[in-house]
Amino acid sequence: xxxxxxxxxxxxxxxxxxxxxxxxxxxxxxxxxxxxxxxxxxxxxxxxxxxxxxxxxxxxxxxxxxxxxxxxxxxxxxxxxxxxxxxxxxxxxxxxxxxxxxxxxxxxxxxxxx
Amino acid sequence: xxxxxxxxxxxxxxxxxxxxxxxxxxxxxxxxxxxxxxxxxxxxxxxxxxxxxxxxxxxxxxxxxxxxxxxxxxxxxxxxxxxxxxxxxxxxxxxxxxxxxxxxxxxxxx
Lengths: 114, 110
Fold this sequence. Notes:
The structure holds two protein chains of two kinds.
Chain A lengths: L4 E3 L2 E4 L5 E6 L6 E7 L6 E7 L2 E5 L7 E4 L6 E5 L8 E8 L8 E2 L3 E5 L1
Parallel strand pairs in A: 2-11
Antiparallel strand pairs in A: 1-3, 3-8, 4-5, 4-9, 5-6, 7-8, 9-10, 9-11
Chain B lengths: L3 E3 L2 E5 L4 E7 L6 E7 L5 E8 L4 E4 L2 E6 L4 E6 L8 E8 L5 E3 L3 E6 L1
Parallel strand pairs in B: 2-11
Antiparallel strand pairs in B: 1-3, 3-8, 4-5, 4-9, 6-7, 7-8, 9-10, 9-11
């Protein structure tokens, strides 16, 4: 397995547009996490799934953000009506109980909202 | 809420040891992690320590944990230019979400 993958790697959009990011976890990892990292800061937790169930959402995840993991494998993160403040790196991670729930991160999707 | 703090910058000469420090506030942390991030890339897991351990060594990396003072450190022996990066400590709270520090930028000078 090649690790966590994310698509696209970069996205430039205009304010007000909707964007969707995809994350493919390490196969058989049942937990999937989304984090947001702004320039010069550490990542901040957004939400996580165990299989297809979304178990926790941060207060950072406004109504414009929605995440899904319909079949318990890949996940999508959608941002509606993007704002300039949404510009950040969106990181996905996955974990499994057999690996002590250690989180392994993907390369991230860098979003720039103009 | 939980808080994790790190110093911003560390400069070290190639071949010397680097020590990166981190403090955290969450008493219920079970695991503490160190991740490395190179420019434009995701986070690479370096090592982690369980909260009931004081020390963990993994090749050039040594993690020290002082649970009483809520202080974590990462020592990199024989620092190389390829070690130049941003290093994040993170603590794992309930629900397995990670709380990260702001990162320490390490610059290795030849």
